[in-house]
C-alpha cells in the first residue's frame, strides 16, 4: 500500500498527462494523502482530472481559535499540512466538533496562502471507527491503480477511455465515463451519486426516487450504497433521512 501511495505522489500525478480530454469531474471529491497536497497548485489534478474537493483522514495535531478563524494542523503517515475554517457569528453549536490529537475526516479545498499550501476546511468530523481510516487508505490506493491503468491504456490509444472496474468489456463508453467521473467509487456507487447530483428538487433526491431510476438488480443495494456514500462524505441528508444531496 505504501508503494502505491508513493507512486501516486510522483511528478506524473498532477501533470499535463490526461487520459480524457474533458473536465470529467467539475464537482468531484477525491480521497488523498497529505503528501499529495504539498507543493501542488490550487488547481490540483489527479491523473489529469481536475479535483474540486479533497478528502483526507488525518490526526488533528493542533487546534487554535484566532478571532473569527479556526486554525488546524493535520498529519498523516505521509506528511503535515495546516488548515483553517471560519467561525460563524450565528452558530448555535461549538465551533469545532473534533478534539486535539484525534483522527478526523476532513473535506476541503487546497489553498495557497503566503506561498504555503493549506487546506480550507469545509467539513471536519471525528473518526468514529478505524474502518473509516482503512477505507480511506484503500480509496487512495485504488485511485493510484486506476490512474496507472488509465495512463497505460492511453499510451496504446489516445481516443479510448480505459475500463476502471471489473465490468464487461462490451459495456458502453458512457458507463466507463460514469465510473471515471468519481474516482475511487464503483460503477453502482457512481450511478447513485450521479442520480443524486442531477436531482432538481429543493431537498435533493428522495430514496424511492433513486430506487426507481436504477436497474432492477440494484434496487436491493441502494440503501447500503446510500449509507456508504453518506459515511464517506459524498452526500448528506436534508429534509429527512430519505432526502439526499451531493456535497
Automatic annotation (TrEMBL):
<dbReference type="GO" id="GO:0005634">
    <property type="term" value="C:nucleus"/>
</dbReference>
<feature type="domain" description="Replication protein A C-terminal">
    <location>
        <begin position="152"/>
        <end position="239"/>
    </location>
</feature>
<protein>
    <recommendedName>
        <fullName>Replication protein A C-terminal domain-containing protein</fullName>
    </recommendedName>
</protein>
<feature type="region of interest" description="Disordered">
    <location>
        <begin position="1"/>
        <end position="24"/>
    </location>
</feature>
<keyword id="KW-0238">DNA-binding</keyword>
<dbReference type="InterPro" id="IPR036388">
    <property type="entry name" value="WH-like_DNA-bd_sf"/>
</dbReference>
<dbReference type="GO" id="GO:0003677">
    <property type="term" value="F:DNA binding"/>
</dbReference>
<dbReference type="InterPro" id="IPR012340">
    <property type="entry name" value="NA-bd_OB-fold"/>
</dbReference>
<dbReference type="InterPro" id="IPR040260">
    <property type="entry name" value="RFA2-like"/>
</dbReference>
<comment type="similarity">
    <text>Belongs to the replication factor A protein 2 family.</text>
</comment>
<dbReference type="InterPro" id="IPR014892">
    <property type="entry name" value="RPA_C"/>
</dbReference>
<dbReference type="InterPro" id="IPR036390">
    <property type="entry name" value="WH_DNA-bd_sf"/>
</dbReference>
<keyword id="KW-0539">Nucleus</keyword>
<dbReference type="Pfam" id="PF08784">
    <property type="entry name" value="RPA_C"/>
</dbReference>
